[in-house]
């Protein structure tokens, strides 16, 4: 009886145009381990926690050069999806792509990135050929995974620009004066 009322309410809401809400409203990723944007040691598995129970999960773990690192099929228990990792993962930036089906039958997709640091795994251990692995490590160092070094260079750039600007102003003043 209560279930019927809920269904009736949902049908009415749909008729009233509430169906215009974005697809992400059907459920959403609440948290993950590793967390989005986190820098971690090579994880043994990925855990994705959703706002609502989900089914038919698919999880893909990709390195910066497109190499795949998930192991086996993803499992969904209630609102938690887990996927094993084919590790250990070499250092680098990884993208987790996921797709689940919400309890209302609508598919929801998303992705997030995390960084592996301090790993002793050689890039060659990945399924990707060596040239791609090289690109992977180059992309990692250029994307400034360790923030502070990147900001140091930005700071130096600002100082250099200020010196150049000051020099030009000084030269102009000297010429006109
Ligand atoms: Cu839906």
UniProtKB/TrEMBL annotation:
Domain CopC per the UniProt entry, residue ranges: 26-116
Keyword Signal attributed: yes
Spans through the membrane: 150-171
SUPFAM superfamilies: E set domains
Signal peptide per UniProt: 1-20
Subcellular location: Cell envelope
Pfam families to which the protein is assigned, alphabetical: CopC
Domain of life: Bacteria
Region span, Disordered: 120-140
Statement: the UniProt record of this protein carries the keyword Transmembrane helix: yes
Keywords noted in UniProt: Copper, Membrane, Metal-binding, Signal, Transmembrane, Transmembrane helix
PANTHER family cross-referenced by the UniProt entry: INNER MEMBRANE PROTEIN YEBZ
The protein's name: Copper resistance protein CopC
Source organism (scientific name): Actinomadura gamaensis
Lineage: Bacteria, Bacillati, Actinomycetota, Actinomycetes, Streptosporangiales
């Amino acid at each position: 009886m209560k279930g019927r009322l809920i269904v009736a309410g949902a049908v009415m809401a749909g008729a009233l145009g509430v169906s215009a809400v974005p697809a992400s409203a059907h459920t959403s990723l609440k948290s993950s381990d590793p967390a989005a944007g986190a820098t971690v040691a090579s994880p043994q598995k990925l855990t994705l926690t959703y706002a609502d129970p989900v089914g038919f999960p698919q999880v893909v773990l990709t390195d910066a050069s497109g190499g795949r690192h998930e192991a086996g099929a993803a499992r969904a228990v209630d609102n938690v999806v887990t996927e094993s990792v084919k590790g250990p993962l070499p250092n680098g930036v990884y993208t987790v792509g996921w797709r689940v089906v919400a309890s209302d039958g609508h598919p929801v997709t998303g992705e997030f990135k995390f960084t592996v640091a301090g790993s002793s795994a050689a890039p060659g251990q990945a399924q990707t050929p060596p040239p791609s692995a090289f690109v992977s490590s180059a992309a990692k160092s250029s994307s400034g995974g360790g923030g502070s070094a990147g900001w140091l260079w930005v700071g130096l750039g600002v100082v250099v620009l200020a010196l150049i600007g000051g020099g030009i102003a000084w030269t102009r003043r000297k010429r006109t004066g």
